[in-house]
Structure formats: C-alpha cells, structure tokens
Amino acid sequence: MKKITFYTNPRSRGAIVRWMLEECGAEYDVVPVHFGKEMKSEKYLSVNPMGKSPALEVDGKVITETAAILIFLADMYPEKNLIPPVNSLERGEFYRWMFFLVQLEYAFIDKFFDVPSSEERRSVGYGDYDTALNTLTEFLKGKKYVIGNNFTVLDLYFTATLRWAIFVGGMLPNEGILVDYMNQHLTREANVKGKELDQKLAESMGIV
Ligand SMILES: N[C@@H](CCC(=O)N[C@@H](CS)C(=O)NCC(=O)O)C(=O)O
C-alpha cells in the first residue's frame, strides 16, 4: 500500500482533495499548514515550492495542483469508478470538462477580484466570464452527472468549485440549474465526512 501524506489548510482548495480522499476510502496522514509564514517556510517550500495548499505526497513523490491530485487519486483507486477508462470516448469528454473547469476556476477568481474582461483579454483561455458560465449552465441543464450515468471526480470538482463560487464568492444566485446540480452531490457521505474532518482540523489549528 502506498504511503499518502496530505498537506492541507482546511480553508483552502485542500477541502476538495479531502473530499476526494474520503471518496476513495484512502488511508492518509494529515500535515496541517497555516497560511502565511508556515506556508512560505523553507520546510514547506521543500514540499511545494509554490508555498500553497494543498499538496499530496505519495511514496515520497509530491503532487500539487488540485486537478492533478484529483485525477491521480481517481486513477489510483480504479475500483471506485471515479474516472472513465483510458482510451474510452468518455475519457476524452472527461479531459474536456476537466480542463474547462480548471479555466472556469480562474474566471471565478477574476470575477471575485473584479478583474475586467475586455478585448485585450481575448487570449485568456476561459474566454469571458458570462460565456463560460452560460456554456456550463447549458451543458448541465437536466443533468445529474457531467459524464455518463455515474458520479466521477469531475462531479466532485465541479460541485466543490460551485460551492465556493456560491457560498464564499457570493457570485452566483443560490438557485437555478447550477445549484440544482451541485445540491445533488453535496450530500455524499464522503463530502459530509470530509467537512467534519476539516472542521476538526481547523479547530485544532485554532482557525475559526
Ligand atoms: N493551482 C493550485 C492553487 C492552490 C492555491 O492557490 N491555494 C491557495 C489556497 S486555496 C493558497 O494556498 N494560498 C496561499 C498563498 O498563496 O500564500 C491548486 O489548484 O491547487
């Protein structure tokens, strides 16, 4: 069995990885990392030179970037059926929406910090905020899952990102197609357990 060490701050994108670790039924150690000094310390920079959370160490190899960690874990636990098989057409669709989401994440952050969409920004991968959001909304209309007929890591990542955009970012209305989609997955046992574990970790770190 591989040794997994999860470096996280429970108030970071680490919460998404936590959900995934629980979804996979993984066994892992947790190393809490505070924002600020500790995250930029020599010790943590030797794990993630970006000084950011989350990071996952698996048998001594470090993986950073939430999307990469999620895909890696989905492949590591094939029996959980959280990613379409390599070489299937669904795997192509999977990549499409995974890369779409990674860019949509920037659209949300730009919107949150009020970075203007303009002509000069037309080489930005996500296009413009409204088009990206409308594309997603149209795509998810009447759907429970992004791909096929079962929950995959894409649903986990989309749901967690939408949760952030709605509840933290306050940038989407708390109703409609995206919310209906999100609510179907938020109640998953692994998410509920992950949230509980993160809450306990936050308390032990003195984070309110
Ligand atoms: N591309 C990275 C982004 C990681 C990231 O920006 N994490 C934030 C918290 S959500 C962070 O650790 N910020 C602390 C800092 O930059 O000092 C990912 O997808 O994991």
From TrEMBL:
Protein name: Glutathione S-transferase family protein
GST C-terminal domain span: 87-204
Coiled coil: none
Superkingdom, natural source: Bacteria
GST N-terminal domain segment(s): 1-81
InterPro entries: Glutathione-S-Trfase_C-like, Glutathione-S-Trfase_C_sf, Glutathione_S-Trfase, Glutathione_S-Trfase_N, Thioredoxin-like_sf
PROSITE patterns: GST_CTER, GST_NTER
Organism: Leptotrichia mesophila
